[in-house]
Batch of 3 targets.
Target 1
Amino acid sequence: MIHTAYEWHGGTARIVAPMTLGRRIRELREQRGLTQEQLGDLIGKDQNYVSQLERGTIRMPHLEVLDSIARVLGTTRYDLLKAAGWIEEDAPIPDMAEVLINPRIQFFASIEGELGEEDWQLLYDFVEFLRNRKRQRATKTR
């Protein structure tokens, strides 16, 4: 499920656009009065990287970068992962003990340093492809 952004007009909520990681980062950055360049400096990246994140060109940064963004913007990794659509809107916060013993998470943690940014983006895109294919199949069987 994807977060949805709303605007309020005369006491009525109007859907603006689906919330994405980039939109959430931009929203939080602007709330704090930061430019893309300032945010980039604070997270060890350049303005172009922040721009690509906000436009959705980079859809899932390394977790280290995501954690830096969350820290600087006063939010959590969980909030940003929800905005990215990786966590369902109403999903409970997972028990960290269960997360740490999950063999799939252990696998991805073990290869984190072996892959570059482009590799992680390809992996993310492939996972999104699989998720969309599963959704489409579920819709067809209804």
Target 2
Amino acid sequence: MSPKSQYLNISGVDEYFPSNERKERLRLVLNQEEWLEILPALENVERFNILIYLVNYGRKAFTQIKEARDLSPGNCTYHLNKLMKAGLIVNQYHQSEETREYSYYEATEKAKEVIEALMG
């Protein structure tokens, strides 16, 4: 096992989430491979806050996220792309009869389960 994967082993995440109860809830939601995929996205406080925002408030447009988190457009794009790559959010397009097409971001079910395990 490489030092990095040993360090990130789900049984050794005291540094990130010290509560044993939280670690047990997290184990029910994620296997170690999934944990290793999402941890880099969750290590950044801004991405973590964006994810919590989307879990709490549902789908939001780019501008809404950018303004709610007081981010520059480039910074917001960077963090959203990291969250999408980790499979924690999706970017979808919607068009209604009254408005033009727009895109929005939404937390995935997996993200909702992770946040519930960590914050619940």
Target 3
Amino acid sequence: MAKDPKRNSDKPIGGYTDRWWMPRFWCGMNFLTFTGVLVRNRFQVHPSRIPMALVLLITSVANSVLTLLQTLVYGWRIARTEVREAPIFVIGHWRSGTTLLDEMLILDRRFAYPNTYACYAPTHFLVSDFWMRPWARFLLAKTRPMDNMPFGWDMPQEDEFAVCNMGLPSPYLGLIFPNRPPVYQEYLDMEGVAPESLRRWKKKFLAESKRDPRAFKCYACEFDQDCPVDKGGKCSWQEEDNVGD
């Protein structure tokens, strides 16, 4: 295969290689979730990764405090929220175009979506989003290194990251210790998951879906940067379809 003369093979393509300060998704875990991951993997942290493990440990304590704060402020409202419409799940193999399909679907004003920050900090984004997201913008690249797709705290994101940061079983947890055998593969299609385990998973996933509607915006409003939901009002699509009442 001919070598692309325009590409410098010595130049990093992006990601953590040349942006070591970029936050890992696991920085959104609380203390119990992160220590549980360490225990399951027998604390087999490579010496070169100990500093990052300490960073994750510190952020996990902060996340636990913020989670408690969100529970005190919004817990009763989340518990009373009803999910009236069935969700739409986009399922597919990695690198098969699921991100593009997701972003095409949410162009429909009837749909809302969790953004990157909501998936990064699923247990406290209601109380931390307004002050955390603005100053943390510089920590992320504008595009993903693997496919050059737009990337940022405001962009739609896979809720599977929220699932594992909430402490639910997820195959994505295997990414933290990539040299270990794959984990929770049965949760890819839910076949083979014990009924009681599936019940617990559904309960916590539903809790994620019941977050305050103001934390989600229709994609069209995201582009306009003037979403009425941010101001306590309703988008036109909510007025028409009575979504979020």
